[in-house]
Amino acid sequence: MRIDKVNEIYTGAAGRKSVYDLKIPDTWNNEILLFMHGYKGYKDWGAWSLMGSAFTAKKFGYCAFNFSHNGGTVDNPIDFPDLDAFAQNRYSYELHDAHTMVNLLHDMYPSAKIHVIGHSRGGGIASLVAAQTSTVSSLTTLASVDDFASRFIQGEALDKWKNQGVYTVKNSRTQQDMPHYYSFYTDYFNHEKDLNILENLKQFEKPALHIHGTQDEAVQLACSRSLALATKGEFVSIEGAGHTFQSKHPWTENVIPKAMQEMVQHMLNFYK
Protein backbone atom coordinates (compact mmCIF):
# COMPACT_ATOMS: atom_id res chain seq x y z
CA MET A 1 0.00 0.00 0.00
CA ARG A 2 3.00 2.29 -0.50
CA ILE A 3 2.09 5.99 -0.85
CA ASP A 4 4.61 8.64 -1.81
CA LYS A 5 2.94 12.00 -2.32
CA VAL A 6 5.05 15.14 -2.69
CA ASN A 7 3.73 18.71 -2.74
CA GLU A 8 0.11 17.70 -2.50
CA ILE A 9 -2.14 20.73 -2.05
CA TYR A 10 -4.31 21.53 0.96
CA THR A 11 -6.33 24.65 1.74
CA GLY A 12 -5.13 26.40 4.87
CA ALA A 13 -6.01 29.51 6.85
CA ALA A 14 -7.81 32.37 5.09
CA GLY A 15 -8.32 30.06 2.10
CA ARG A 16 -4.64 30.09 1.16
CA LYS A 17 -3.36 26.91 -0.48
CA SER A 18 -0.15 25.25 0.62
CA VAL A 19 1.55 21.88 0.28
CA TYR A 20 2.29 18.69 2.16
CA ASP A 21 4.18 15.44 1.68
CA LEU A 22 2.76 12.09 2.77
CA LYS A 23 4.73 8.86 2.75
CA ILE A 24 3.32 5.50 3.79
CA PRO A 25 5.78 2.57 3.56
CA ASP A 26 4.99 -0.81 2.00
CA THR A 27 4.86 -2.37 5.45
CA TRP A 28 3.02 0.15 7.63
CA ASN A 29 2.42 0.05 11.37
CA ASN A 30 -0.77 2.17 11.10
CA GLU A 31 0.88 5.15 12.77
CA ILE A 32 1.59 8.54 11.15
CA LEU A 33 4.06 11.17 12.32
CA LEU A 34 2.95 14.71 11.43
CA PHE A 35 5.81 17.22 11.38
CA MET A 36 5.46 21.00 11.81
CA HIS A 37 8.32 23.32 10.89
CA GLY A 38 9.36 26.46 12.75
CA TYR A 39 9.86 30.15 12.10
CA LYS A 40 11.43 30.97 8.71
CA GLY A 41 11.15 27.26 7.97
CA TYR A 42 9.44 24.82 5.64
CA LYS A 43 9.05 21.07 5.26
CA ASP A 44 12.04 20.73 2.90
CA TRP A 45 14.47 22.73 5.02
CA GLY A 46 17.81 21.08 5.83
CA ALA A 47 17.69 17.41 6.76
CA TRP A 48 14.01 17.22 7.77
CA SER A 49 13.16 15.04 4.74
CA LEU A 50 15.92 12.60 5.68
CA MET A 51 14.50 12.51 9.19
CA GLY A 52 11.19 11.49 7.63
CA SER A 53 12.89 8.73 5.68
CA ALA A 54 14.41 7.41 8.91
CA PHE A 55 10.89 6.96 10.26
CA THR A 56 9.37 5.39 7.15
CA ALA A 57 12.26 2.90 7.20
CA LYS A 58 10.89 1.83 10.61
CA LYS A 59 7.35 1.30 9.24
CA PHE A 60 5.89 4.68 10.29
CA GLY A 61 3.93 6.88 7.96
CA TYR A 62 5.31 10.41 7.76
CA CYS A 63 3.65 13.67 6.79
CA ALA A 64 5.20 17.14 6.68
CA PHE A 65 3.55 20.34 5.51
CA ASN A 66 4.21 24.00 4.95
CA PHE A 67 2.15 26.39 7.01
CA SER A 68 -0.08 28.30 4.62
CA HIS A 69 1.47 31.70 5.29
CA ASN A 70 5.13 30.69 5.73
CA GLY A 71 6.17 32.68 2.64
CA GLY A 72 6.25 29.78 0.22
CA THR A 73 3.83 29.07 -2.60
CA VAL A 74 2.32 25.98 -4.17
CA ASP A 75 4.61 26.38 -7.16
CA ASN A 76 7.70 27.24 -5.10
CA PRO A 77 7.45 25.78 -1.58
CA ILE A 78 11.15 26.30 -0.81
CA ASP A 79 12.36 29.62 0.61
CA PHE A 80 10.14 32.71 0.60
CA PRO A 81 8.89 33.95 -2.79
CA ASP A 82 5.73 35.48 -1.26
CA LEU A 83 6.75 37.89 1.46
CA ASP A 84 3.28 39.44 1.62
CA ALA A 85 1.86 36.09 2.71
CA PHE A 86 4.69 35.83 5.25
CA ALA A 87 3.80 39.30 6.55
CA GLN A 88 0.17 38.25 7.02
CA ASN A 89 1.06 35.17 9.05
CA ARG A 90 -0.08 34.81 12.66
CA TYR A 91 -0.22 32.08 15.27
CA SER A 92 -3.95 31.50 14.82
CA TYR A 93 -3.34 30.78 11.12
CA GLU A 94 -0.69 28.19 11.97
CA LEU A 95 -2.96 26.54 14.53
CA HIS A 96 -5.75 26.45 11.94
CA ASP A 97 -3.39 24.76 9.47
CA ALA A 98 -2.29 22.22 12.07
CA HIS A 99 -5.90 21.28 12.84
CA THR A 100 -6.61 21.06 9.10
CA MET A 101 -3.75 18.61 8.57
CA VAL A 102 -4.68 16.46 11.58
CA ASN A 103 -8.25 16.28 10.30
CA LEU A 104 -7.07 15.50 6.77
CA LEU A 105 -4.97 12.56 7.97
CA HIS A 106 -7.71 11.31 10.27
CA ASP A 107 -10.22 11.40 7.40
CA MET A 108 -7.79 9.47 5.17
CA TYR A 109 -6.86 6.90 7.84
CA PRO A 110 -9.52 6.85 10.59
CA SER A 111 -7.92 3.96 12.47
CA ALA A 112 -4.34 5.29 12.39
CA LYS A 113 -2.55 6.79 15.34
CA ILE A 114 -1.43 10.35 14.64
CA HIS A 115 1.66 11.60 16.48
CA VAL A 116 2.44 15.30 16.13
CA ILE A 117 6.02 16.62 16.05
CA GLY A 118 7.00 20.29 16.05
CA HIS A 119 10.32 22.10 15.82
CA SER A 120 10.86 25.46 17.52
CA ARG A 121 7.76 27.63 16.98
CA GLY A 122 6.16 24.59 15.35
CA GLY A 123 6.61 22.79 18.66
CA GLY A 124 4.33 25.35 20.27
CA ILE A 125 1.72 24.83 17.57
CA ALA A 126 2.06 21.04 17.87
CA SER A 127 1.55 21.34 21.63
CA LEU A 128 -1.67 23.28 21.11
CA VAL A 129 -3.15 20.95 18.51
CA ALA A 130 -2.23 17.90 20.62
CA ALA A 131 -4.00 19.45 23.60
CA GLN A 132 -7.05 20.47 21.60
CA THR A 133 -7.59 17.41 19.36
CA SER A 134 -8.73 14.00 20.56
CA THR A 135 -7.44 12.31 17.39
CA VAL A 136 -3.80 13.14 18.26
CA SER A 137 -2.15 10.24 20.12
CA SER A 138 1.10 11.85 21.31
CA LEU A 139 3.23 14.98 21.26
CA THR A 140 6.93 15.39 20.48
CA THR A 141 8.63 18.78 20.54
CA LEU A 142 12.09 19.58 19.22
CA ALA A 143 13.87 22.69 20.55
CA SER A 144 10.43 24.12 21.20
CA VAL A 145 9.21 27.39 22.62
CA ASP A 146 6.83 27.16 25.58
CA ASP A 147 5.19 30.57 25.20
CA PHE A 148 4.42 32.92 22.33
CA ALA A 149 3.60 36.19 24.08
CA SER A 150 7.03 36.61 25.66
CA ARG A 151 8.75 36.35 22.29
CA PHE A 152 7.24 39.53 20.88
CA ILE A 153 9.43 42.62 20.70
CA GLN A 154 8.91 45.03 23.58
CA GLY A 155 9.19 48.70 24.53
CA GLU A 156 10.07 51.28 21.89
CA ALA A 157 10.42 48.60 19.22
CA LEU A 158 6.83 47.49 19.88
CA ASP A 159 5.60 51.09 19.76
CA LYS A 160 7.37 51.59 16.43
CA TRP A 161 5.81 48.40 15.09
CA LYS A 162 2.34 49.62 16.11
CA ASN A 163 2.87 53.05 14.56
CA GLN A 164 4.39 51.83 11.31
CA GLY A 165 2.24 48.71 10.98
CA VAL A 166 5.17 46.50 9.98
CA TYR A 167 8.62 45.48 11.14
CA THR A 168 11.18 43.36 9.35
CA VAL A 169 13.65 40.66 10.29
CA LYS A 170 16.70 39.96 8.15
CA ASN A 171 17.06 36.41 6.88
CA SER A 172 20.81 35.91 7.07
CA ARG A 173 20.79 33.09 4.50
CA THR A 174 18.54 34.56 1.81
CA GLN A 175 19.31 38.20 2.70
CA GLN A 176 15.59 39.02 2.54
CA ASP A 177 14.01 41.58 4.85
CA MET A 178 11.09 39.51 6.08
CA PRO A 179 8.08 41.61 7.11
CA HIS A 180 5.60 41.12 9.94
CA TYR A 181 2.37 43.10 10.00
CA TYR A 182 1.19 44.39 13.37
CA SER A 183 -1.82 42.05 13.05
CA PHE A 184 0.59 39.27 14.04
CA TYR A 185 0.80 40.86 17.50
CA THR A 186 -2.88 41.76 17.98
CA ASP A 187 -4.04 38.39 16.68
CA TYR A 188 -2.28 36.58 19.51
CA PHE A 189 -4.13 38.52 22.17
CA ASN A 190 -7.42 38.22 20.30
CA HIS A 191 -6.99 34.41 20.41
CA GLU A 192 -4.97 34.04 23.60
CA LYS A 193 -7.22 31.37 25.09
CA ASP A 194 -6.48 29.06 22.16
CA LEU A 195 -2.83 30.12 21.78
CA ASN A 196 -1.49 30.09 25.35
CA ILE A 197 0.62 26.96 25.27
CA LEU A 198 1.05 26.21 28.97
CA GLU A 199 -2.58 26.98 29.78
CA ASN A 200 -3.72 24.57 27.06
CA LEU A 201 -1.43 21.86 28.45
CA LYS A 202 -2.77 22.05 32.01
CA GLN A 203 -5.08 19.05 31.51
CA PHE A 204 -2.78 17.22 29.10
CA GLU A 205 -2.76 13.43 29.61
CA LYS A 206 -1.17 12.03 26.45
CA PRO A 207 2.39 10.69 26.08
CA ALA A 208 4.84 13.51 25.43
CA LEU A 209 8.54 13.81 24.61
CA HIS A 210 10.52 17.05 24.63
CA ILE A 211 14.02 17.13 23.09
CA HIS A 212 16.43 20.06 23.21
CA GLY A 213 20.10 20.65 22.39
CA THR A 214 22.36 21.90 25.16
CA GLN A 215 23.92 24.48 22.82
CA ASP A 216 20.68 25.88 21.39
CA GLU A 217 21.40 29.44 20.29
CA ALA A 218 17.77 30.42 19.59
CA VAL A 219 15.50 28.90 22.24
CA GLN A 220 16.47 28.29 25.86
CA LEU A 221 16.73 24.72 27.10
CA ALA A 222 14.43 25.76 29.96
CA CYS A 223 11.54 26.01 27.50
CA SER A 224 11.54 22.26 26.88
CA ARG A 225 11.89 21.60 30.61
CA SER A 226 8.83 23.78 31.12
CA LEU A 227 6.89 21.84 28.50
CA ALA A 228 7.89 18.52 30.06
CA LEU A 229 6.65 19.72 33.44
CA ALA A 230 3.35 20.84 31.91
CA THR A 231 2.74 17.57 30.01
CA LYS A 232 4.27 15.32 32.68
CA GLY A 233 6.29 14.05 29.74
CA GLU A 234 9.84 12.96 29.09
CA PHE A 235 12.65 15.50 28.73
CA VAL A 236 15.82 14.68 26.77
CA SER A 237 18.82 16.94 26.23
CA ILE A 238 21.29 16.26 23.44
CA GLU A 239 24.79 17.31 24.41
CA GLY A 240 26.37 19.86 22.10
CA ALA A 241 23.38 20.13 19.75
CA GLY A 242 22.26 23.52 18.47
CA HIS A 243 18.79 24.71 17.55
CA THR A 244 18.56 22.62 14.38
CA PHE A 245 20.43 19.58 15.76
CA GLN A 246 23.43 20.21 13.50
CA SER A 247 21.36 20.37 10.34
CA LYS A 248 21.57 23.35 7.99
CA HIS A 249 20.17 24.45 4.65
CA PRO A 250 20.94 23.30 2.10
CA TRP A 251 21.80 19.86 3.45
CA THR A 252 23.80 18.10 0.74
CA GLU A 253 24.75 14.87 2.51
CA ASN A 254 22.72 11.70 2.21
CA VAL A 255 22.74 10.98 5.95
CA ILE A 256 21.39 13.09 8.77
CA PRO A 257 23.83 14.71 11.24
CA LYS A 258 24.86 12.83 14.38
CA ALA A 259 22.81 14.98 16.75
CA MET A 260 19.71 14.42 14.64
CA GLN A 261 20.39 10.67 14.54
CA GLU A 262 20.42 10.71 18.33
CA MET A 263 17.21 12.71 18.34
CA VAL A 264 15.51 10.24 15.98
CA GLN A 265 16.55 7.28 18.13
CA HIS A 266 15.00 8.89 21.21
CA MET A 267 11.81 9.39 19.23
CA LEU A 268 11.74 5.80 17.99
CA ASN A 269 12.18 4.59 21.57
CA PHE A 270 9.33 6.86 22.65
CA TYR A 271 6.94 5.52 20.00
CA LYS A 272 7.52 1.87 20.93
Describe the protein:
This protein has 272 residues and is of the alpha/beta class. The protein is 35% helix and 23% strand. The strands form two sheets. An eight-stranded mixed sheet has the order 1-2-4-3-5-6-9-10, with helices on both faces. Strand 7 (166-170) and strand 8 form a beta hairpin. Helix 3 (91-108) crosses helix 4. The chain is globular, with a radius of gyration of 18 Å.
Helix/strand/pairing class, anyone? alpha/beta
Shape: globular
Q: What is the spatial order of strands in the main beta sheet?
A: 1-2-4-3-5-6-9-10
Radius of gyration: 18 Å
**β-sheet strand percentage:** 15-25%
Helix count, DSSP H or I runs of 4 or more residues: 10
Order of helices and strands: EEEHEHHEHEHEEHHHEHEH
Helix content: 25-40%
What gap, in angstroms, lies between the N and C termini?
22 Å
The average pLDDT is 98
| Biggest sheet overview | 8 strands, mixed
